[in-house]
Amino acid sequence: MNRKCRRPFSTAIAVLLFTSLVIGTGSLSYAGDAEEPTAKEAARVAGWYVSFDEEAEGAPAVLSQGILTMQDGLITAVEDYCEGEEGVVYLDDECLILPGLLDLHTHFGYNGMQLWYSEENESPWDNRFEWRAAQEYMKAISEKDDILSDEWENAYFTENATMGDLVDYFEELQAAAGGTTLIQGKNDRPDTYNSADSHKKLRIVRSTGDEEDVGAEEGVLSITQVFVPDPLLSTEDPSTYLPPIDTSAWGIANAPDKVTGGEYLEELLQDLKDKKDRGYLIHLAEGRAGNLTGSGDDYSRREFEQFKETVRQGIEAGDFTAEDVRNAHIILIHACGIHLDNEDDRQFVKDCGIGIVWSPVSNLILYADTPDFYEYMGEEGLRIAVGSDWSPSGSKNVWDECKFAYAFMQAHASDQEKIPEKLLKAATYDAAAMSGSEKAGNIRPDAYADLFILRGAEPMDGDAEKALELFVNAEDSDVEAVLVNGRPVYGEEKTVNALTEKDSSQVYGQFTTDVEGLENKYFLIPELFAGSTLSDLEHDYRMFLMAAGVTVSGVRGADDPYYETCLQELQAEYAR
After folding, report:
1. β-strand 330-334 against 280-284: which pairing, if any?
2. Residue predicted with more confidence, 559 or 495
């Protein structure tokens, strides 16, 4: 039985770093630019936490009270709760510790942009080729991204850091502010985002593209497409790329890999033959699902059927087995062409252990439709995660996506039981299992010390339902702290101070904000930007995007009224 020798969370912890970190108060320096010690002292935090019981059928969520010990990026021990322990940071009873969230669908480089709505063309769109080919989209998003991409690798704002590094940093801040601790990484910029060097200097959240971050021999490979329409859209004939675009008669061709000169699908099939275990995040069959509108995108459906048939042919030919496919950790992003109410589709996904990433906000903004994947969350043999997609048509982070999905499922799901638990599991435990990241997505010994800490309005008191409701109802101002590798990357001054009391090498900054409740939030400033205040970094970031004509989105939802309004309107529309 736990001893109840309760002592309150101390509010008298010395402020070690923050008095010089408010915007505009001067430059920052790192305490001790010498090499890091080989081993850091263990950090211990106590409070209510949610974990998933891997020994029980379905791995249900469990609310417990305990003490977590963290060292070298891992949770090394989970002990029974007891007050009065030396060196333990005791959270208030209103606080709740969750596993860090995983976002398996996002697009770095675009997430500094505001939501995009077409004013010239009628939406919703019939298929993804219509909005991609719209002149308004090209001017508002595509052309501006090209300008940024051309410039950011060569534009240095410090001796070591490019504007590309700065863009990545602010997009990681956006993710971290929403509890994300592992995010879909870019594969096309190895000199920054996926570099082991850069990982030490820049990264504040984990990347699926980095083998160390997912605990595998290789990082998860992100593939934007395995199929392209045949014939391709012709820039020589404007009639083929101006909406509306009818894809009903289009054929399908394998998409080329511009880096290797081969084809993505052929490379994937060869990896399956070689029994390669690396993980694959594949954009496939995006479009109108037909779940809400009654009429789906035929081309999107054919893409999935082609993929299904190709994999099955490989199994039947003996090139590889269904187990080889399961071990490959294949994850399909969007996958609007899958019909899980179709027994053949559902059995294929189960037999091959294929994960699905659902992004309802983007689906609804673009197509006024979304697959009914929410009806199958929790079904044995199926893995369904939630992804934010990107800022032009999606959520700022996967937490926002889950909160929207909660309201949507309350209005549309036939099974109203345990919706908050299903969504938390989709963004943590199931997402980790899909990607082959065995140490992510749960709170247990030997798991990553990646934590998302929220503050409720009243004590948890052992009420699991109340705790899970907090996950889907809390606001930006309720984030107490986000930890990656056992170190705070974002959070309230008091809690971040407590968790970094013995580590003066960590440096934090604060945004200027007039939003009530967000005055005391602090962000980690990586070593790459040593000597710069967060105001310096924000100024350079905004100037760089604005020079390309980009209307800059706020890092947090609460900082971005336009985003908040759009999301609330969308939520109201689909919650009727």
Report:
1. parallel
2. 495
What is the C-alpha to C-alpha distance for residues 501 and 444, in angstroms, rounded to an integer? 24
CATH code assigned to 128-138+168-435:
3.20.20
Give the DSSP per-residue string, 400-433: HHHHHHHHHHHHH-S--TTHHHHHHHHTTHHHHH
- From 164, 143, 161, 170, select the one nearest 152 (Cα to Cα): 164
Q: Is the pLDDT of residue 345 over 70?
A: yes
Q: 108: pLDDT confidence band, cut at 50, 70 and 90?
A: confident
Residue in 332, 353, 503, 405 with CA at minimum distance from that of residue 101: 405
pLDDT of residue 253: 92
In the block, tokens 């943590």 appear at: 428
Predicted TM-score (pTM) of the model is 0.91
- Residue 151, judged by CB atoms within 10 A of its CB (0-12, 13-18, 19+), counts as middle
Written as one letter, the residue type at 318 is G
- Terminal C-alpha separation, the chain: 47
The secondary element (H helix, E strand) that includes residue 69 is strand 61-71
**What does the alpha-carbon distance between residue 295 and residue 184 come to, in Å, rounded to a whole number?**
31
To the nearest whole percent, how much of the chain has pLDDT over 90? 63
pLDDT, tens digit, 9 for 90 and up, residues 218-234: 889 999 899 998 866 66
Ranges for all domains in the chain classified under CATH 2.30.40.10? 18-100+440-557
DSSP 476: G
The SS3 of residue 434 is: helix
The answer to whether the CB of 252 falls within 8 A of the CB of 155 is: no
3-state helix, strand and coil shares in percent for the chain, rounded to the nearest 5: 35, 20, 50
CATH domain 18-100+440-557 topology: Urease, subunit C; domain 1 (2.30.40)
**Residue where the block lists tokens 């949507």:** 408
Q: What is the predicted pLDDT for the residue at 323?
A: 97
The identity of residue 169, as a single letter, is Y
Longest dimension (CA), the chain: 76
DSSP 229: E
Residue in this structure with the two tokens 């940093």, named with its chain if needed: 169
Q: Please report which confidence band the pLDDT of residue 72 belongs to, taking 50, 70 and 90 as the band edges.
A: very high
- Three-state DSSP at 367 gives helix
What does the pLDDT look like over 363-380, one tens digit per residue?
A: 999 999 999 999 999 999
Q: What are phi and psi of 484, to 5 degrees?
A: -125, 130
The segment(s) of the chain belonging to CATH 3.20.20 are 128-138+168-435
